[in-house]
């Protein structure tokens, strides 16, 4: 049995850790979408790609014409949908089965980073199983109307890492009057 790999979480949250509303994101922030795409696509070894693991509800929130998200192996967790394995898309009905699959060949060699892209159920499961080694969090300095949150994370327990090598780089950005900050936390 191969050792189970660790994963990285990428999430955007408001001041109260709200992450979703009516099955979608509560905000539309292009700069955060670009950060998400760039970060989850980035590989050190150009012969590899990354996996993005998500819950069925997160998958359904992605517009049809953009699915599967390009340049990454899309892995969807669902107990209600049939399992399938295609080149760019996997549906699997159990979290541990999914982690064992991605920790075994051929994925073990082909996949550089396993990104957990949510939603709340899938983030929480990975945290509870202690399978997360880093969290990339967009902290949005605004309160939104949300119905899904990830308020269980106590950031005071984690070390904040530099996002980039340049220590002086500010990770705070603004879009349409909304301030948000890209942060990286070591778990
Ligand atoms: N702000 C952000 O960064 C961010 C990121 C992602 C998502 N979101 C938002 O979060 C919301 C969705 O989050 P959510 O927590 O409601 O749903 P979710 O985590 O996206 O999906 C939940 C679904 O995943 C499947 N699932 C969960 N645990 C499983 C397991 N152990 N094995 C197999 N399948 C499993 C089940 O699908 P079945 O019912 O098919 O069995 C379950 O209904 C949306 O509003 C979305 O826009 C926000």
UniProtKB/TrEMBL annotation:
One of its GO terms (biological process) is dihydrofolate metabolic process. GO terms for cellular component: mitochondrion. Coiled coil: none annotated. InterPro entries: DHFR (IPR012259), DHFR-like_dom_sf (IPR024072), DHFR_CS (IPR017925), DHFR_dom (IPR001796). Its EC number is 1.5.1.3. Residues 6-187 form the DHFR domain. Pathway: Cofactor biosynthesis; tetrahydrofolate biosynthesis; 5,6,7,8-tetrahydrofolate from 7,8-dihydrofolate: step 1/1. GO terms for molecular function: dihydrofolate reductase activity; NADP binding. Keywords: NADP, One-carbon metabolism, Oxidoreductase. It catalyses: (6S)-5,6,7,8-tetrahydrofolate + NADP(+) = 7,8-dihydrofolate + NADPH + H(+). It comes from the Eukaryota. Belongs to the dihydrofolate reductase family. This is dihydrofolate reductase. It comes from Caenorhabditis angaria.
């Amino acid at each position: 049995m191969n050792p189970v790999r660790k994963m990285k979480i990428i999430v955007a949250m408001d001041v109260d850790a709200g992450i979703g509303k009516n099955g979608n994101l509560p905000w539309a922030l292009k700069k955060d979408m670009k950060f998400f795409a760039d970060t989850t696509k980035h590989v050190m070894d150009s012969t590899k790609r990354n996996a993005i693991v998500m819950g069925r509800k997160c998958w359904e929130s992605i517009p049809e014409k953009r699915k599967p998200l390009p340049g990454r192996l899309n892995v969807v967790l669902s107990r209600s949908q049939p399992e399938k394995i295609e080149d760019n898309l996997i549906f699997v009905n159990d979290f541990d089965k999914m982690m064992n699959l991605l920790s075994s060949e051929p994925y073990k060699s082909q996949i550089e980073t396993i990104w957990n892209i949510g939603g709340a159920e899938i983030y929480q499961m990975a945290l509870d199983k202690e399978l997360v080694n880093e969290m990339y969090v967009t902290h949005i300095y605004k309160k939104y109307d949300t119905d899904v949150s990830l308020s269980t994370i106590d950031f005071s327990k984690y070390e904040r890492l530099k996002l980039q090598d340049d220590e002086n780089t500010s990770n705070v950005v603004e879009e349409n009057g909304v301030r948000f900050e890209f942060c990286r936390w070591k778990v």
